[in-house]
Amino acid sequence: MHRFLRAIGFSNIKSRRDFDPILGKVMDHPDKKRKIQLTPDCTYTEFAMEVGSQIGIVLRGEYDKKGFFYMEHYFPYCESRLITSHEDVTVNKRVDTNAFTGMCDDLRLGISVIFYLQNAIDYMELHCADNTPRKAKLTLSGLSLKGTVILGVYHDVISCQKQNYITQYRNHLISKAKNGDQKAIDDLAIGEISTSSMLRSRIKTEDLYSIVKTSIVPYGSESDHYSVLGIIVNWSVARNALTNEEVYQMLLNCNHLLINVCIHKDDLLGEPEIGRRFKGVIWMQGHSDFL
């Protein structure tokens, strides 16, 4: 059973047997249904059903030539309606199923963001080889099983303008460094040394979370899991129509990336408010509109 079902309001599901009736509802009354013919004898099919605002379940499997359906896998999802990035996305197929992970190199992070691809059939219809970068409009979202709300950091107008300039200049250097500009590489290295020195000096008298405003760091052995610290830009409460449980949906700003995070109301310590920050571990998901 998928452990992130709790994040979308299925906290009372303890076994696969408890969840089978819900999977039956997904197949019988899907909100979306997609098909692709993989072979003359196999039709790969995806069923998706919303259980609340921007949350739901996707079930995938194969129909054989006799019309029998064989479920391959399912997963809970959380949607985002804001474009996070407009960069090249590289997709790789997982070993065991027709599921895919995407990777996007975003200049705002300086690292590759790896996510679970929600719209796998859209990618399969392209019939392109793995590891082939394709331009895409990417929206990112995440599911969390535990999180904490902490206070924000105050910045006046001048400091915000200064920080925006520093961020834009750093992104410019990263772009040039990716193209092999040695001076940009050296400038980035000097900047990292300066930042490290500043942190060592300030950490003696200040709290870490007053120095680090936002962050996104890979977490554990799963490539699409991240430890995030993000500013709450907006938030709402959604209700699971099948269980009547409530979940929080928070739009986070993590290093200027917008990520919509969903977490069960009982699993969040603190009350979300705009300007406060969310700290927790998320399973990153992404929807790529390939161009």
Overall description:
This protein has five helices and 14 strands. With 291 residues, the protein is an alpha+beta fold. Among the domains are: 76 residues, N-terminal domain of TfIIb; 54 residues, no CATH class. Strands 5, 6, 7, 8, 9, 10, 11, 12, 13 and 14 form a ten-stranded mixed sheet that branches. Strands 1-2-3-4 form a four-stranded antiparallel sheet. Helix 3 packs across helix 4. The model has no long low-confidence stretch (mean pLDDT 86).
Distance between the termini: 34 Å
The CATH architecture of the domain at 3-78 would be Single Sheet
The SS-based structural class is alpha+beta
For this structure, the quaternary state is single chain
pLDDT < 50 runs, ≥5 residues: none
Write the layout of secondary structure elements.
Blueprint: H1 16-28, E1 32-39, E2 42-52, E3 55-64, E4 69-78, E5 85-93, E6 100-106, E7 111-117, H2 120-124, E8 134-150, H3 157-178, H4 182-202, H5 208-211, E9 215-218, E10 225-239, E11 246-254, E12 257-264, E13 268-269, E14 277-290
Parallel strand pairs: 7-14, 8-12, 8-13
Antiparallel strand pairs: 1-2, 2-3, 3-4, 5-6, 5-8, 6-7, 8-14, 9-10, 10-11, 10-14, 11-12
Helix pairs in contact: 3-4
